[in-house]
Amino acid sequence: MNLLSRSTVAAVAALTAACAAVAPALGGASHCAQTYSYAGVRSIEARYGVGARISTLRAPTVAAGHVAAWVGVGGSGLGAHGSTEWLQAGISAKLGEDPALYYEVARPGRKPRYVMLKGHLPLGRSYDVAVLESRNHPGEWRVWVNGDQMTSRIHLPGSHGAWRPTATAESWNDNSGICNAFSFQFANVAVAATPGGGWQPMRGRVLADAGYKVEHPNSTSLVALGG
Predict the structure, then answer these.
(1) What is the number of domains present in the chain?
(2) How far is CA 91 from the centre of its chain?
(3) Model's pTM, two decimal places?
C-alpha cells in the first residue's frame, strides 16, 4: 500500500479544534482515474508517532484491489538517501475478503511486507491503532493495537524527526478506474510530540482525492467516505 508522498494531493484547510471545513462532495462519481485515492488528514509537522481509534461504519465494497483505513509514517522516496520506507497500521479489506486488522512495513531495497494481525473483523468495532518511535532507540518503531505491542522494534533509517504522520482511508483500484466504497471513522487522532509519547492533537491538512471526501474534520476526528 503506497503511502502518500505526492506534493499535489487535493489538500484543503488546516485542521484546528475550531475547523469546520469539509472536502468536496462525491457528486455521484463512479470513475476514479487515480490508482491510489485518499481521504484523511496529514500532519503539517514532523512528529514521532500517530494514533487513532479506527472503526468501519459500513461494510466496504471492493470491486478491485483493496481499501484501508490506517495511521502511518514515511512514504515513497522519503527514507534515507531517497529510499522508500513506511510503516502503517489499521483496517484493510481486499476483494472477496472480510476486513482485517493489519500492519505494513516498507524498508529500503525490499518489497513492502503486509502482515494480518486479525481477520474477519466485526462491523462497527473500534480499534486503537498507533505507530510510535522508540523513546530510547532513534529510528526504530513499533505498532500498537489497543495498548498492546504488536511488533518488535522496526528499524527505518533516516526516520528520526523526519516524517509527517498521516491518518487516512485509502483505495487502490488496481488500475481499473473503479471507485471502491468505504466509510471509516477516525476518532482520538493524535501525534507524538516526542519519541515514545507526548501525545497531542494533530495539526494537519485534509486530503480528499476525486471520488472521496472527508466529513466533520477537527483536531481529533473525521469520517472518510468513498464510492
Answers:
(1) 1
(2) 9
(3) 0.88
